[in-house]
Every structure is written in C-alpha cells, then in structure tokens.
C-alpha cells in the first residue's frame, strides 16, 4: 500500500470474518483469539468495503462466547454413529459509524459519517490500533477547517490523538452537557468558555446558579465579564448588578406571578390588569413624545410604567361606586370588591425584599433607555462571554427570573436585523432547576415555555442552548429532544442513563452502557459535532471554577467550626445576603 494511506492491514492480521449483516450492525466471528484478548468494547473495527481502497469503520458494541456443536462426519464409529464436538465461538457485534476511502475522486484519505455499502459475508475485519488508530484520529482533525476546530481533549483509545469537535455544529442545533455530581461538568463548561475566549468575538451568556464560575471573571485577564442578579440587600445601582424591573414582564408572566387562577374573580383581575398596563404604557409613550412606538406597541411590549400608578388604579376599581337606578343613589361598580385580594397580592410582592430585583430597582431601571443598556451588556460582543450569578435568587422564584431574562434576550435577538445578528449561546447551568420535566405551577410553565421556544425556533435566529445538568431525567424532554449533540460524562442513576439512551439511535445502546463506568473528566461525545461518537478525556481548564465538592473525611480532621462564623451565617440568613 501507499505510505500515505491511513489504514493499512495485512491479511494475516485479521481479527475475524463476517457472518451476519443488517442495516445498523455487523456480526463477525473471531478467528484470532490471541488478538481478541487485546480488544474491548468501544474498540474501533474496520471491514473491507466495496473495493480495495475502502474500509467501513465501526465500534465494537458487544462480545459474546458460545458453544456450537458440529458433527464429525468423517469420524463415525463402527455402528455408524456420528460423533459431535462442541466448538467455542467468540462473536463480535460492531455498530457501523463511517467510511474511510484511500481515494475519493481527486481527494485522498477521506472519512465520512455513515456507510454507503455494507461488508460482505465472509469478508475480513481488523481492529484499528497502533499507527492505524493514530493516523485515523489525526485524519478526523485534519478534515476540519482550522477556524471551526474546538479542542476538547484526547481520545481515551489513543492519548496522543487530539479530540477536536466542529465548533459550528456543536452550537448550531443546541447541545447538552450531562453528568452526575463530581463527574467534571463545571470543568467542562469552563474548558469550553476558555476555548471560546480565544475567538475574536465570542458571545455566550452563562446562567450560573451557584456562583461557581466566579473565578473566570476575576484576575488580570478574566475569561468572562461577571454580573449578578440583585439580592434582597442590594439597593444601589452597580455596574455588575442586574435588575429585571416589573415592566419587562409580558402579560402572561404578570398573570402567572400575580393571579390565583382558582379565584372566581381571576378573569376580572386579568382583564383590569391588562387594561391598566396598556393604558399606562401608552401614557408613558405619549408623555415622552414617542408617537412612532405609541402607534404600534402591544401590551407585551417592554415599555416602562409606574407601579404605584398601577396599584392606585386597581384600588380605584376595587372601591368604585357608580350612579344607581334611583336619583342621587350609588351602587357598587363592576369591579367593586373583586380586586381586593389581587391588589393585596400585588402589594405583598412589591414589598417582598426577595423580589427587590424586580419591584425595587434603582431609578434608572425605570427609564426608556435602560433596556438599551441591558441589551448591550448581555448580547453585545464587547463584553464577550458573560456570566450571570443567580446564587442569591430564592429557589421558589428562580424559574421566573431565568425565564424572563431568557425571553427578553431571545426577543431582542429575534428583532435584530438578520444580517446584523451575531450568534449567541445561552449556557443553562443546573438546567433541571428551571427547565423541569414536569411543572408545578403556572409561573414555572411560563418560564419553561421561553426556553422551549428557543429550543424549537432559536436556530433560525442564531440563538442556541447549551443545557448543563446532573439530572437529565428531570429536564424538559422537549428541550433535550432538540439537542443534536451530547457531551455525556459519568451518569450513575439508571433513570438519567435511560434518558441519554432514549435520545440515541438503538444501534448505540452498547456505547451508552459505558456511562456509569466513565472516570472523572471522561465523556462520550455524541452527535454531528464529532464524526466518530467515541470516548474522550477532556482537557483541564486553566482557570477552574469553584468546586462544590467537599473532602468530608479530610476536613473533619483539619478544620474546626468557629462560633463567629455561625453567628455571621445567621445574620446573613436574616439579611438574605452573604455580603
């Protein structure tokens, strides 16, 4: 063979012969049992293709051993009885992955996903190892344009070969990074952000639920720009504090947050809320002389309005008396007494310090230009990668906060001129907390709808999701089903494993069986971002996120709890702030 060929096999080095072929897998019987001892599930196997310069490449999915009885027809005894001998057989099932060609038209050494032909019965198969494996892995990297390369790590099968994904394909159609606690998820996210930082205009927004990515925003050369959702004790306007004022809420979000659907008067409350919000937004625009927007806006348009005025008008409706049938008489108005509980609920929300980021923002957040600044901060490329810390947001309102922010970012991106859009990815850390597989209330449902809309339609407008979770079984099936690429780290829970298996072709079932056996930092990368679905060892990021994993046994032997630290914790709990 030519010295430049990637795969070179000698006839006497064959592992076995094919005896069964179907549309997704090939069965072979091992003929070299010594060589079989060096092969394991996950090894790459090559079959002769339709001609001498073509090989079909697959992954060993299953190895079984059985005994086959064979009649020794030439050894029958004097009574004519034919003896039977039991013969050991080692059977290999291989899932076909792609096709290697030494020559493909004018091109040399090409590899493509899928198979155009199938191995013939009785044809040889070989294990891809040593130099063949190194050259094949190198070919996969070389075929990818340099500007598209996203280096993730090295192949477990050959640590000298780099595992490189197609960065465009990874983010174009959504991706999921899944793994149990301690499997290396946060390090994997940090690695991807670090690689993206090397680009000229990276545009990612990370929803950081526990503040663990803070180290990436610090130091003389930070990887990302940090923001934090304002907590109960934050009242001043700071550059890195984010508020989401009430006027950003659309009609459905307002109703989900404020209405009790079980009340008889809920329809009346919804009607008056919508009426007054639209009225107040129109008055604001007219007072500002913005006739162009005033003629086109809807009740869902993010236009500032006074919360105090809204409460006053609802109270007026609730107490309104109208002329009665008799002269100089009065009777209760159409909404008299029907909004009492609704107004009380709105006031309670406005006074709840936990909702300070929404109902108690600084004055500049109630101005028309404020939303322009938010869009520039979170969607502009001057800031590059943005990390938003949600750690001080109470868990019961977390879905609302994340959902509103995601919807606003999506809608701003949607209304950007197509030729002026720069793609943006929302990194949804701990996605199971706000993208649940089943919703508990209307507020959660509204938040989930925002992400499901992005999952279904975002690709058309250049906005994608990177879903990160330790419990994929608790994540919305709609969102996960839209993900075309999966970086699956160790998953020990059988329900979580079944979710990943369900999203994969049936032929890949054997590969997914390795999920609970992966080491920390090892992953199965599945999807069109990597030509071969295979096991890789992820690189360690240069800036590591704050690990939430405590060394219990070690710290019990080294660290004493101080009384003053507990007192400080109690006071922080009372203030609802760690600062």
TrEMBL record:
- Entries under InterPro entries matching the protein: HerA-like, HerA_C, HerA_central, P-loop_NTPase
What is the source species?
A: Brevibacterium antiquum
List the protein's name. Helicase HerA central domain-containing protein
Helicase HerA central domain boundaries: 151-407
Taxonomic placement: Bacteria, Bacillati, Actinomycetota, Actinomycetes, Micrococcales
Which key words are in the record? ATP-binding, DNA-binding, Helicase, Hydrolase, Isomerase, Nucleotide-binding
Q: Which domain of life is it from?
A: Bacteria
Helicase HerA-like C-terminal domain segment(s): 417-525
User: Under the GO molecular function aspect, what terms does this record hold?
Assistant: ATP binding; DNA binding; helicase activity; hydrolase activity
